[in-house]
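Re: [help] complex structure
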Amino acid sequence: MSDAHNNDDHGGELEPVEPIADPGLPEHTWRPTDVDPAKEKRAERQVAGFFGLSAICTFLFLVAYFTLDIGDNWHVIAGFGASTMALGASLGFALLFIGVGIIHWARKLMADHEMVEMRHSARSADEDRETTLQALNDGLEESGIGRRPLIRNSLLGATGLLGLPAIVLLRDLGPLPGDKLEHTIWGQGTKDKPMRIVRDGIWTPILASDLEIGDLVNAQPDALKNPERYGIDPIEVEGIPLQVHKSKASLVLLRMNPDDITPGKDAKGNSRENWDVEGIVAYSKICTHVGCPISLNERTTHHLLCPCHQSTFDLADSGKVVFGPAGRPLPQLPISVDAEGYLVAQSDFDEPVGPTYWERDYYDRW
Amino acid sequence: MTAGDMTKVATTNGTTPSAPAKGANKAGAIANWADERLGLGTTMKKNLRKVFPDHWSFMLGEIALWSFVVVLLTGVFLTLWFDPSMTEVHYDGSYDPLRGVEMSSAMASTLDISFDVRGGLLMRQMHHWAAHIFIASMMIHMLRVYLTGAFRKPRELNWVIGCLLLLLGTIEGFTGYSLPDDLLSGTGVRAADGFMKASPVVGTYMSFFLFGGEFPGDAIIPRFYVMHILLIPGILLALIVAHMLLLVYHKHTQWAGPGRTEQNVVGYPMLPVYAAKAGGFFFIVFGTIALLGGLFSLNPVWKYGPYDPSKVTAGSQPDWYMGWPDGLLRIIPAWETHIFGINFSWNVMLPILVAPPLLLMVLIALPFLEAWITGDKREHHLLQRPRDVPTRTAIMVALMTFYGLSWAAGGNDIIAIKMHLSINQITYFLRGAVFIGPVIAFMITRRWCISLQRHDEGKLLHGYESGVLVRSPDGGYAEKHLPLAEGTAYTLTARDRDLTPETVEEIEASGLAGRQVRLRKLRAKLQEKFYSDNVQKPTAEELHDAQHHAEHELHELESQIENGPNRHGPTPGH
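Output below.
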């Protein structure tokens, strides 16, 4: 729009007269420190006093730094560490006293007469605008950018192409996903050596008889501790690879009354009736919503609740979502027992675990 | 510029005038040296005594600025020890409950900073406290700017910069609290991985590229670290500088009052008063953060332990400023669409990938939307009271209500436990409340503002309630109203009258056609709604008449007091 007039775009009608005329700035009143030398002197002493207190606090900070030990004294004073408290308090007050002193100085002793400054409009003066516009036009004219579309367009095209290297260079940030999200280490068991299910943390194999009805056990694949048993290079299950495996293979075992279980269907449409061992079912611990480990067990209902966003899954009914934002049931791991009676995985999960992603397929299990 | 009467001001901070010190010549020489190279004389000519108006609410942005400085200072300290690496090590520092536990170097060095570097835990906690205060004060500052109309022309671009600062501050906070690689923050990063995977088409690729492979990989902490200490702070700093330069160029807004107009700015000069107050305030903010850092523990990562993808703690929550999208993520129904072997995860996309950017865009658009509706293209430097623009105030309160309810949803598990409620019922309630609540809040706020306007008008026309009740001879009671002081009355009237919307005839007479006419009609309708029921300030005549009437009533009451049973003091004749 043309901004030639700033304040009367909606003029036309006359604004009614202001009901009350501006009485102008109120009379300045002198502070006690302006008129009473004794008070002025006192304020001066107060300000210096604050600065002095600050110096004392700084000194205390140094004393605390060199005298209070940290190390294994971290629990001194309410499990908090005497050093941190003393350093924080002394540093805090050293800073606060400087601040208070300066502000006290400003309020009591510096001139407190308000000043008036006139504003300017944010826009430049007409003359300046014209000069600038002229300069811009001259420059553009002399460059000939308007007259030489061939140069202009080829430049735009060539510069635009330079965006590609910028994007391509980021390609090596990470590998392509491939089918990595579709497999877990549970699939590395063989017919002779099916993957044992072991307790998370203590890594001992589990007998079906170890679990009572209602018991929940956090479990991991045995390969994470005994890779050689399954022909896996130990380097594959150390450090970061270990974390990667855990973030997909973590399991919860729950024992319930076998009669409570309503077996669903697997990916091929067959019944899941042989996926449990005497009422012990195994489900992925990774929530299908955004991937938190699910951990809260409602013992009486065989419901499992995710502590992050409260999605609730029914482990008696193929991991069906009974509440919350998760869109998919929990993946179930088919289990059986090996020759020694320990719980083992029959195979890998028959679907990807963890949060939903774009190209992830889905099958209905009911 | 008027310097004012300084005759009585203490010029020396002492009782006797000081003789020019020896240093004065030296200072002069230095100034001369600098000016001959930098031309400071010209640039500083106006700025040294630049005037800043005073009001407590102008301090909120200052808190944000100073807490950012504290974040920078403490952050530099932390970088000296922090090792942003995900290499697994066995912790062998002073904190015995975790000694021997395998964890990433990032976590181990965080523990070292906390337990083996003197003052390290203090700095860590100050850094985190200052970050909380930085974001909180930005939000409150933004509310102040919006509710007082300080965002209006010519300051719209500074509003946009402010919105971007809030966004960057939030990302900066998230990347920052993810760095220690503890159980809580790792859970947050895992959720972020889920968010990325939910993105259409490129989700898995984004996840694999960011994490350098499959989650958790070994790249995310170093990459977050670079974003956290270099990329985002650099942009933040540049935007803060731009924010401040524009503030200086536009000059600060001020409240209306006697002598304070659209054309001037009244306040204290930068040197010395404002520099002292603002500088002193830096120490106050810094000191407060130091006290918080020393006395109030937060984010005790040593209690959470190192990240393990198979573990989680109950009550896992992000830092509070990430709480509202997390709340939406909790209350959204389980909406996913599976079609042709692909997934649309609405249950993640809507709360995380759509809602926050949408809210940010709404915030950025607010000044432009309001200017379009009101058609107000004037510059404004006087602030408005929230009650004087009821629709604007109501819009923000509606947004705040949405934010607050979403935020509460982010703590639905805690609310359920602490208040012994059913988490299911809380969730069902909030699903409706996040939509209905803002509407109710909007209506209540709007009417509330209008009622406050009417109260102001009453005070202006009829005087304020003195609290003196008078009984008339026939037994009725009336309260004595006294006229407002001139300055107060002027301040109440020192605001613009609302602009009048175009009428349909005017629009049709304009000779335009089609879409333009429809747009202008829509605008006129919205403008009508925006201003409807507002109380305009009285004209000089109305005010005069009303005051005349009020004076008359006052006289009547006073003569009743004079004659009637309301007489104070001993009855004559005794």
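Residues 51-181+220-308 of chain B form a domain with the Cytochrome Bc1 Complex; Chain C fold (CATH 1.20.810.10).
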